[in-house]
Specification:
The structure holds two protein chains of two kinds. Chain A is mainly alpha-helical. Chain A has 13 helices and two strands, in the order H-H-H-H-H-H-H-E-H-H-H-E-H-H-H. In chain B, helix 4 crosses helix 5 and helix 13 crosses helix 14. Classes of the chains: A mainly alpha, B alpha/beta. At the A-B interface, helix 9 of A face helix 10, helix 11 and strand 20 of B.
Chain lengths: 325, 498
């Protein structure tokens, strides 16, 4: 076993990520055997729909967790973005592109708000994100006068449905291409740029980084801004796949995104993050969700499972660290 | 003084790489206040930790009230009647005085806590001690002095027979110290045995009956306080033996330019009106006892902690330093006494740590130039002879000496001209120590200017070209290396400032 772990290719990819990938494949095979008709393109397209928006959420929160922080507002903020963007589109008649940009802008602003409070004011991330979760829910409800909002369909008579091509064109999963591009960019940001280096380092030992003459507050805040912006993008992919958004919801996605991160090897203690791991984690969660639905179980069952996943993987991380020390 | 209540004989304790206690003896009588003295790192605290069961001794015997004992934790020691009043107070600020005193052994009424009884009992205790504190007051509302009194009351409520005071006066005002002494005299009159650890020579003369001195983990001797002078005690503390050749003259030419000038630096209680100059190529030693304000001065100078006032000049030009960023921009590097917390990111690689302060130099466009980064890191690994399998090794896997070299590399990559070494050899074994010394001398010879804070007298005398001595937040002296002796430094470091 140790010999496999020392293999340079295995080391590069990460032993835990390889295991997680095997789990993903096994899970898919298991569902395919247990559920007649599970295997096939239709299901995969459906899983992918879930992967996109959850992927952007999870990638965003990976940056925050890398700093040693946490963000429980991502799900509700995503809904808030989708609600305000969609409502402006339907009620005020703004062009689709403006709605999309508005949605991303709102995510960005939430990121600024959270990041500023955490990094400059010094409010604990847990409290900040709990508060902005409620703010996001409230804001979405107030703006839409507590009505659900539906984004235009592909066959919209005014041609406003073009944004759905972001997810798929015919049978081509264009969303996968966009998602892959983002994954590559974010991988590079995390591992090969100054912001990524500082975000990871300050997550590991903020004071040592500060005493090296680094503006740690700026970089800590940036992690939340990256997260918020990605949440805004997640909102676009959510409505492209699922059309309708209801006010006051979204918190279930927090757990799913965080579960994806910790499964992928991002440490809740900060300082250690894996973009690739998060992506595999997102696929596992999305597959689970699809499988559970196909088994005619409810969303609640999935909530139990994701809850347990978070606990198990965080425990594994904590005890691995304890062993090391 | 009465009969002997406590005897520690031949106590020996080793930690990996350190012989912390080398067959130490201590004898305490009933109705005695016994001072335990020695420099930082002499082993006083370790001895007390062995006594109260925090550490297990390797050999030796502890005899308490005629019976040989061995405590496995502080609770057992408390049960037997030996309690320690710590330097740092262990109080829960949001609880009341009474709740704090009886924490962990609350009186119960059924399943409810009997707060009333705790208050009455606390009041009784305070009356005994002639202290005026309201048991219902919130702990955080009391002054440090009053909190200390509560700590003492708590100790006594354990039916203590022996009380250890670990630098009790460090944070007290003069009035509070008088109150404290009144209580200690009271306790002595009640025939308790008291061990009193302090650095303040004048207090020792006032309050104690006998003095035991330790040095480098070994027992030096015990004197009757009234029969000895302050100088006798200092001589015993520093010893006559000088085991490393000290620097005999400054290596800095008289006309070397002043690179750093600090004027009237103030930062809280620990840095009061500190002024000094640092010349090019100089190693300026900062000596003093623990809590003298040396680290605080360095941190204020470096912008790590806010300062209240003071001017800093670099190469004759006044500079504003409000954060470590400003300091680094002005060519100052700080090597903390606590490397793992403040110096390095242990879970990251040597490369990542080496370029931590200089990353913009190794980024082209948006990307980190990993090739360049590796090259400079490997260059310094070679130059500083850092022992590591590769530049990609996590710093956590290196020894203390090699971790220190990574921190040094970080500032050399940055090309800092002024380096502040805070306890540069703490936690580093003897062989590596010499390497660090050589390195510091080389850096000074190359024209870097170094501030070296050290609690080791031999290190100060061996490395410094000039020595600044601090005591209780103030600069109490500046000594040329030609005139420096351990006694002269110690005298200034223990000078009581009224």
């Amino acid at each position: 076993m140790d010999k496999i772990k020392q293999n340079p290719i295995v080391k590069k990819l990460g032993f835990n990520r390889i295991i997680l990938f095997c789990i993903l494949v096994l899970l898919y095979v298991a569902f395919s055997i247990a559920i007649p008709g599970f295997a096939g393109m239709a299901r995969i397209m459906s899983i992918l729909n879930y992967v996109y928006f959850l992927g952007f959420l999870a990638l965003g929160v990976t940056f925050v967790i890398a700093t040693g922080g946490i963000d429980f507002s991502i799900g509700p903020v995503m809904f808030c973005c989708a609600l305000i963007g969609g409502y402006s589109l339907n009620t005020y008649g703004v062009p689709v592109i403006v709605s999309i940009l508005l949605s991303i802008l709102i995510g960005f602003l939430f990121g600024m708000f959270n990041g500023w409070l955490v990094a400059f004011v010094g409010v604990p991330p847990f409290i900040v994100s709990m508060a902005s979760m409620n703010i996001a829910k409230g804001l979405g409800s107030v703006f839409t006068k507590t009505q659900s909002v539906s984004w235009p369909q592909l066959n919209d008579p005014d041609g406003r449905g073009w944004f759905r091509n972001l997810v798929k064109v015919g049978d081509v999963p264009t969303g996968l291409i966009i998602f892959a591009v983002f994954v590559i960019i974010l991988f590079i940001v995390m591992n090969n740029t100054k912001p990524g280096r500082y975000i990871l380092s300050l997550g590991s030992n903020k004071e040592a980084v500060r005493l090296s003459g680094v503006n740690v507050r700026k970089w800590q805040m940036l992690a939340y801004v990256i997260c918020g912006t990605l949440v805004g993008i997640a909102a676009i992919f959510f409505v492209s796949a699922y059309t309708t958004v209801q006010p006051g919801l979204g918190d279930t996605y927090n757990n799913e995104a965080i579960a994806s991160c910790v499964m992928g090897g991002t440490s809740m203690a900060g300082g250690l993050a894996s973009i690739g791991g998060t992506v595999i984690g997102v696929f596992v969660i999305s597959l689970l969700q699809e499988g559970i639905m196909a088994l005619r179980m409810t969303k609640e069952v999935q909530m139990i499972i994701t809850g347990l996943i978070v606990i198990i993987f965080v425990y594994a991380d904590v005890s691995a660290r304890r062993r090391k020390n | 003084m009465g009969e002997v209540i406590l005897t520690m004989k031949g106590i020996d304790k080793s930690f990996p790489g350190v012989h912390a206690l080398d067959h130490v003896d201590l004898e305490l009588k009933r109705g005695e206040v016994h001072a335990l003295m020695g420099e930082n790192g002499a082993g006083k605290s370790t001895l007390m930790k062995v006594l109260t069961g925090i550490y297990t001794k390797d050999s030796g015997t502890i005899t308490f009230e005629g019976k040989e004992v061995e405590f496995h934790n502080t609770h057992e020691a408390q049960e037997a009647g030996i309690v320690i009043v710590h330097q740092e107070l262990n109080m829960v600020g949001d609880l009341t005085v009474a709740q704090n005193i009886f924490i962990g052994r609350e009186f119960k009424k059924g399943i409810m806590i009997d707060d009333k009884k705790m208050i009455t009992e606390s009041r009784k205790l305070f009356d005994e001690l002639h202290i005026n504190i309201d048991p219902k007051a919130k702990m955080s509302d009391l002054t440090v002095g009053k909190q200390q009194m509560c700590e003492i009351a708590k100790a006594i409520s354990h039916k203590a027979k022996v009380i250890i005071f670990d630098e009790p006066s460090a944070a007290l005002t003069e009035k509070e110290i008088e109150d404290l002494f009144a209580i200690i005299r009271d306790l002595r009159a009640q025939n308790l045995g008291i061990i009193y650890i302090s650095h303040r020579m004048d207090e020792i003369k006032v309050i104690t009956d006998r003095v035991t001195v330790m040095r480098d983990g070994a027992y030096v001797g015990t004197l009757i306080t009234n029969d000895c002078t302050k100088e006798d005690i200092i001589n015993m503390m520093v010893g006559r033996v000088i085991y490393e050749e000290p620097k005999t003259k400054s290596m800095v030419p008289d006309d070397a330019p002043v690179v750093l000038k600090v004027e009237h630096l103030n930062a809280g209680k620990m840095v009061q009106d500190v002024s000094f100059e640092l010349r090019k190529g100089e190693i300026l030693g900062f000596s003093g006892l623990m809590g003298a304000g040396r680290t605080e001065t360095a941190r204020a100078l470096f912008g790590a902690d806010p300062k209240t006032s003071g001017d800093i000049y670099i190469n004759g030009k006044k500079v504003a330093i409000h954060s470590p960023q400003d300091a680094v921009r002005n060519g100052i590097g700080y090597l903390s006494e606590d490397r793992k917390r403040y110096g390095i990111v242990v879970q990251k690689t040597i490369t990542e740590n080496s370029t931590m302060a200089t990353l913009e130099k190794y980024t082209s466009g948006l990307f980190i130039n990993k090739g360049e980064e590796k090259k400079i890191t490997e260059q310094y690994i070679k130059e500083l002879a850092t022992k590591t399998p590769s530049a990609e090794e996590l710093v956590v896997n290196l020894s203390g000496g090699n971790q220190q070299k990574v921190v040094i590399a970080k500032w050399l990559v940055r090309n800092c001209d002024i380096l502040i070494f805070d306890e540069p050899t703490r936690g580093i074994d003897v062989g590596a120590k010499n390497e660090i010394y050589k390195l510091m001398n080389r850096l000074a010879a190359e024209g870097k200017s170094i501030i070296m804070i050290s609690s080791e007298m031999t290190e100060i005398l061996r490395m410094s070209d000039r020595i600044v001595v601090m005591c209780e937040g103030k600069k109490t002296g500046e000594i040329r290396i030609e005139d420096a002796t351990q006694e002269a430094i110690m005298d200034k470091a223990t000078r009581d400032i009224k």
